[in-house]
Design goal:
The chain has 376 residues and is α+β, with helices and mostly antiparallel strands. The chain folds into 2 domains: 190 residues, Aminopeptidase (3-Layer(aba) Sandwich); 141 residues, Gcn5-related N-acetyltransferase (GNAT) (Aminopeptidase). 42% of the residues lie in helices and 27% in strands. The chain has 13 helices and 14 strands. Strands 1, 2, 3, 4, 5, 6, 7, 8, 9, 10, 11, 12, 13 and 14 form a 14-stranded mixed sheet that branches. Strand 12, helix 10 and strand 13 form a beta-alpha-beta unit. Helix 4 packs across helix 5. The protein is globular, with a radius of gyration of 21 Å. The chain starts with a strand and ends with a helix.
């Protein structure tokens, strides 16, 4: 029988050594996930790892990496140690990485990865319900004796491209009529950057449109925060190098009216972030961009599924009624952990659901980040 070898990674050198095995593991997982890839997690760590401690637990079967728990620990309020997935709240999905045929390792992987004493609060986002990863985490926390809670967090809408179901969105939103309305103002075209310099220019266009779009909604775009923009830019450039990046722009008479960051990984098209001109909202420029991307992907036979990512935004329901439920796993130890759980699990979600309260705080935090980075 092949032998199993368990290991831990706690430093960046160990993370780098995992590269080849991690890429192979992500490629063997039954459900393709951009957020399970080594490159996504490595770039996130390079941008946001400061102040965090790696806690990666893995399993080798002979010379093959077959299971991985990509975790880290950060401190909040000075003393509270919070255990999270790598990628944290920036990823649309979080899970234990279990190669095909190795799902039985999930319960023991969860037990080892969470069995140490170096955390007060566990906060694992966006675990797909009904998966081996969700079952392993639930079983491990149930047996641990710690207080824990599993709650619905959101959904992840997905659209299959094998049939004509995607055309329902076209009909439902009358996109043909809306496109003709825009074309009366000027010619429309779908543009993709072809080289590194063009990607840089397209990213700047994307950033500018995103900032304007959120300013019109009385919000401050995350892309105005230098550290966050560095993360988005680094990820996009690396994805372009790997052949994953799809950065389309819907251009009307030479002006970008909608653009978005899409990533193509293992025939799954991930829609991650978007921006559009709010003054043209009645023409649905972003829905027209998604429509053009679907047609482009089908014509090139490069995608089987459009993954709209975490969130139940209205525009996603225009394309599909199929969605994967996402869960949040939280566990706590001692009084510190319980207090942090009440803040992160109850008070903060309440604030998110009441924009009138949370918007000023969010704007202040982003402005402080900009000031700290010396940005006007």
């Amino acid at each position: 029988m092949p032998s199993l070898r368990w290991f831990e990674v706690r430093d960046e050198e160990g993370l780098e050594r995992l590269g080849g095995g991690w890429r192979h593991l992500a490629a063997t997982m039954p459900e393709p996930s951009l957020f399970a890839t080594y490159d996504w997690n490595r770039i996130w760590w390079s941008c946001f790892g400061r102040g965090r401690e790696l806690r990666i637990v893995g399993v080798m079967r002979d010379d093959e990496l077959v299971a991985l728990a990509p975790l880290c620990t950060t401190r909040r309020f000075g003393r509270v140690r919070v255990r999270e997935f790598l990628g944290s709240e920036e990823a649309d999905e979080g899970r234990l990485l279990l190669g095909a045929g190795h799902e039985e390792l999930g319960p023991e992987l969860a037990r080892v990865a969470l069995g140490d004493s170096a955390w007060d609060l566990l906060d694992l986002w966006c675990v797909p319900a009904g998966t081996a990863s969700a079952a392993a985490l639930d079983g491990s926390l149930s047996a641990s004796g710690a207080g824990y809670r599993v709650t619905p967090l959101s959904t992840n809408p997905v659209l299959g491209l094998s049939g004509d179901a995607w055309k329902e969105g076209e009909r439902r939103e009358h996109l043909g009529r809306k496109r003709r309305g825009l074309e009366r103002r000027g010619p429309l075209s779908l543009v993709f950057p072809a080289d590194h310099a063009a990607v840089e220019r397209a990213l700047e266009d994307f950033r500018a449109l995103h900032v304007r779009r959120w300013a019109a909604a009385r919000e401050v775009s995350r892309l105005t925060v230098p550290s966050y923009w560095a993360w988005v830019r680094s990820l996009s450039l690396e994805a372009f190098r790997l052949g994953w990046l799809r950065l389309p722009s819907l251009v009307m008479d030479g002006t970008v009216i909608a653009t978005g960051l899409f990533f193509l990984y293992r025939r799954r098209l991930f829609q991650w972030m978007n921006a559009h001109d709010l003054t043209l909202a009645r023409h649905s420029p972003f829905l027209l961009l998604v429509h053009a991307m679907i047609q482009h992907s089908i014509a090139r036979d490069e995608a089987d599924v459009v993954d709209f990512g975490r969130g139940d935004e209205w525009y996603k329901s225009r394309w599909t009624r199929t969605a994967v439920p996402l869960q949040r796993f939280m566990a706590w130890r001692r009084l510190r952990g319980r207090g942090a759980y009440l803040w992160r699990g109850h008070i903060r979600p309440w604030a998110w659901s009441h924009p009138g309260w949370s918007r000023p705080v969010r704007r202040m935090k982003r402005s402080l980040h900009r000031l700290a980075a010396g940005v006007a």
